[in-house]
């Protein structure tokens, strides 16, 4: 990941919802590395929030934690009002909040489906009006992290896959409506992530280590996608130069989705 710092980045304020772990933390790191003023949003885990701020402290940008569950009605509007008060505006909003409940499509669990849909759709549903105000005058960047499970069949992923598909549709509708305001809305999508935590196969969730190794070998680029790979694409989409990319789902998977 290159530094890419500059005056334009140093003047930007970003809020990364779900920014204390996984892909969200990687996006926060990429933005802070470019000099951005970054707020990492989190719902409950104070320890993870403190660790994230400490982990990013040496980067050119400044990083602060901002507590609040953005799936709750008042949270994101309240957070955005605070950021407008402190900084005048918000330039970048990244939605990296995720929920995953394993289940079969033929034996769905309503509570799990409800939770996954809420995690995917609530932040932009509840925050769209406030985001429009916070980014008034543009340019503004709204970015969501999604998954290839929105368009492909992944075992036991039906609930999260349906939620991500709905989120991608929400991106397109918001992109069309917010474009006249100078605000772009895009998504970055990927396949299974290698989060690289301690030990072989760690960070792979429910996937067997042998399956993960097979996916890595199958990927044309020769390995699984990492959160940093996703974050670099996210930073590109948040840049001033990406202003003519709008309503798109950009896939960052090393070419894995190209294969039959």
Automatic annotation (TrEMBL):
SUPFAM superfamilies: NAD(P)-binding Rossmann-fold domains (SSF51735). It holds the Pfam family adh_short_C2. The keyword Cytoplasm does not apply. GO terms for molecular function: oxidoreductase activity. InterPro entries: NAD(P)-bd_dom_sf (IPR036291), SDR_fam (IPR002347). Keywords: Oxidoreductase. This is SDR family oxidoreductase. It comes from Streptomyces tagetis. The lineage of its organism: Bacteria, Bacillati, Actinomycetota, Actinomycetes, Kitasatosporales.
